[in-house]
Amino acid sequence: MTLGLAGYGLVVWLFLAVARGVKRGSRGRVVLATQWLFEILLGNIEQVVGSRKLARRLAPLAITLFFFIMINYWLSVLPVVGPVTWGGVPLFRSLAADLNVTFALAIISMVAAQLYAIKTHGFFANGGRYFKNPFKDLIGAFEGILEFIAEFSRLTALSLRLFGNVFAGEVLLGMVGFMSGWLAPLSLPFFMVFELFIGAVQAYVFFMLTVVFVSLGTVSHSRQPHTGKRREFKKTAATG
């Protein structure tokens, strides 16, 4: 709980500090690094969704998820995480190592994808992606069922992927520290740096998957019943 509050506090502090720095014209390293990373992530969103307007609406959520996951992942690398216990229960535990938290983040991501799809196509048209008349389009109805099941599989994959990597990282550091013994202060720093890199990668993967799922929801595909060929409609997100 304590480490989770620290993670929330660091994310809020970073955003407020960068916002104040930008207004004052600061050229500090933290401000410049955050701006540089923000511009890269925003550019990635624009490339995926194909709409600058939609990208700017999606950026606050997707980029916040990136920083939140990365910072909390990095906190799990601290030496106090895991070894310090009270009654056999760790006193410090990263939020990203809690399956409840990763599952909640995945729910936020998938709900956002559905909301953007509904805003783009409308409630009933979005539901038409999953539920079609089998008497008019049997193959389309079957594909709709598969797509509906895929939404839940994406939700599960998002949560378990992040949780598994954080948990594996904590186990790795614990094993290296135990096996190294007195040499742990020399061996652990290398693995900690590696875990910092993995944390940034996992945050970026979660960020990109969120953007991709939103992009998939804002693009409409229909099947021609007689020819069986697919026609991809123009993205309405650019005007929506």
Automatic annotation (TrEMBL):
One annotated GO molecular function is:
proton-transporting ATP synthase activity, rotational mechanism
Q: Which UniProt keywords apply?
A: ATP synthesis, Cell membrane, CF(0), Hydrogen ion transport, Ion transport, Membrane, Transmembrane, Transmembrane helix, Transport
GO biological process: what's one of them?
A: proton motive force-driven plasma membrane ATP synthesis
Q: Which PANTHER family match?
A: ATP SYNTHASE SUBUNIT A, CHLOROPLASTIC (PTHR42823)
Can you list the GO cellular component terms from the UniProt entry?
plasma membrane; proton-transporting ATP synthase complex
Database matches in PROSITE patterns: ATPASE_A
Protein's recorded name: ATP synthase subunit a
| Family label | Belongs to the ATPase A chain family.
Gene3D superfamilies xrefs: ATP synthase, F0 complex, subunit A
According to the lineage, what is the superkingdom?
Answer: Bacteria
Which cellular compartments is it found in? Answer: Cell membrane; Membrane
Q: Which residues cross the membrane?
A: 58-75, 95-118, 162-184, 196-219
Its biological function? Answer: Key component of the proton channel; it plays a direct role in the translocation of protons across the membrane.
Q: Which InterPro entries match?
A: ATP_syn_F0_a_bact/chloroplast, ATP_synth_F0_asu, ATP_synth_F0_asu_AS, F0_ATP_A_sf
Write down the Pfam families for this protein, in alphabetical order. ATP-synt_A (PF00119)
Q: How does it sit in the membrane?
A: Multi-pass membrane protein
